[in-house]
Amino acid sequence: MHLTSQWILASALAMTLLPVHAVAADDKERVLRQMDAAAARFHNTTADFQFKSIQTDPVPDEDTQEGTVYYERSGASFRMAGHIRKVDGKPITKIYTWSKGVLQLYEKTINQITIFKTSNNLEGYLMLGFGASGKDLESKWNIKYLGSESLPDGKVMVKTEKLELIAKDPAVRKNIARVLIWIDPERAVSLKQILYENSSERRECFYFNMKVNGSQDSSVYVVRPEGHPNIITK
Q: Can you give the pTM of this predicted structure?
């Protein structure tokens, strides 16, 4: 091929590829700014969930938890609760709560409360996809835009934007190598998340029957054990 022809072909290929990268960057910016606007309007979310923990090596294993999650944000204050009702299809009650920098797990079957020693740095990761603004995500994650995808929310299909997130904090990357998130930027909520702990372990999270800025009973954020529970700290 003549040198001039090669140059023309290379230039044409470059001109074809450049707009794609520009569009991806523009789309990411658009999604993050939509999240900023939605986060300013966000007060709370209630959603049913299904969490699948999957291990592929050394021994393939999978467990499924089902229940309801609650998120509330008021100014700088944030709290969440996860009420697990089924584990692998069997009725089992567990409640996770996060409030004022404290993460707790209540296990009704053994009447035990576990208090996890942590810090407010965890809050930004618990908020992931629920009331977090684009600026919140940018402060903690390196973000890649992966396109649009429609997902079911009950009987309704919702257009979501798929993002890949890599934590900026090396300590977080030790536990979460990367995250894929399918977010509805108009409501600042996610309908699906995949958290990759490593090459052989991941958690797939599906959210549906999403209710944003509805009425909530504040008791869902409080653990009320029966009798005198065993309390341990980790």
A: 0.85
